[in-house]
């Protein structure tokens, strides 16, 4: 992105110490006016990230059971999959997601298991996993953020991210000046990413650099908590014939 000398807008900057530190949030309570969302940390040996005592889970036993089962289903997927709250905070991530990003170094505010948007925008090692980082990941995620921020600047976490963007002159200029032109040129695909194909660098040497299809979904029950799931469907290596297996459907001519 070209560097431009621009005056800062009215966004008020805050010291880095005011930015939330690492810790996996659990925003699993339907939003109500004046209600605070609960947060907790994922237990080190718990891949489901949810227990009966987890704060923020819905009080209704059936809803709690649904959340448990949904996270268990997510854990069973072979592809990296993460459940995100409205501010891109990670409510749950499966082992395949942790494996994909497990090699990145520590960062006080932008770890991939804490906030996916922060990781993409602010972690210095994001490009080591997300190939074509600036054009295929930064711009599209920033476009999504811009739309969400325009809809509700007070949504949890969004104002902090906007302030951090404002702290970087190049990123701030891109956000305020370049991004609107890019969104206008790309159209709806700039902010609606379901089905798009992007590139990642997997730490598994047998995979290496590979493409993945983004699948974004939000079942009705999750949607009432403002949650959505992002899955990166990695393309298998090897010739297509070797990958078909049982999933391959053959067309049998009718007689």
Largest sheet: 5 strands, antiparallel
SSE succession: HEEHHHHHEEHEH
Unreliable segments of 5+ consecutive residues: 1-55, 238-252
Strand-pairing-aware structural class? alpha+beta
- Summarize the amount of helix as a percent range: 25-40%
Molecular shape: globular
Query: Could you report the average pLDDT, rounded to the nearest whole number?
Result: 78
How many E-type strands? 5
As a whole number of angstroms, the C-alpha radius of gyration is: 20 Å
Individual helix count: 8
Q: Please indicate the percent range of residues in DSSP E strands (runs of 2 or more).
A: 5-15%
Largest sheet, spatial ordering of strands: 2-1-5-4-3
Terminal-residue CA separation:
60 Å
């Amino acid at each position: 992105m070209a560097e431009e000398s621009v005056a800062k807008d009215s966004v008020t900057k805050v010291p880095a110490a005011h930015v939330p530190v690492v810790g996996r949030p659990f925003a699993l309570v339907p939003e109500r006016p004046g209600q605070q969302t609960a947060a907790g940390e994922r237990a080190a040996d718990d891949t489901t990230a949810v227990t009966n005592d987890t704060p923020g889970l819905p009080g209704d036993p059936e809803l709690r059971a649904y959340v448990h089962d949904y996270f268990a289903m997510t854990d069973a997927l072979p592809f990296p999959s993460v459940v995100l709250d409205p501010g891109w905070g990670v409510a749950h991530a499966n082992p395949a997601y942790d494996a994909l990003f497990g090699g990145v170094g520590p960062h006080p505010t932008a770890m991939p298991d804490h906030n996916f948007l922060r990781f993409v925008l602010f972690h210095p090692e994001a490009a080591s996993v997300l190939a074509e980082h600036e054009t295929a990941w930064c711009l599209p995620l920033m476009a999504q953020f811009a739309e969400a921020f325009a809809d509700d600047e007070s949504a949890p976490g969004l104002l902090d991210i906007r302030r951090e963007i404002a702290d970087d002159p190049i990123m701030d200029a891109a956000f305020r000046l370049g991004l609107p032109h890019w969104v206008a040129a790309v159209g709806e695909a700039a902010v609606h990413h379901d089905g798009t194909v992007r590139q990642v660098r997997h730490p598994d040497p047998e995979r290496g650099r590979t493409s993945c299809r983004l699948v974004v979904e939000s079942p009705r029950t999750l949607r009432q908590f403002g949650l959505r799931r992002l899955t990166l469907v990695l393309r298998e290596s090897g010739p297509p014939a070797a990958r078909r297996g049982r999933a391959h459907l053959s067309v049998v001519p009718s007689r």
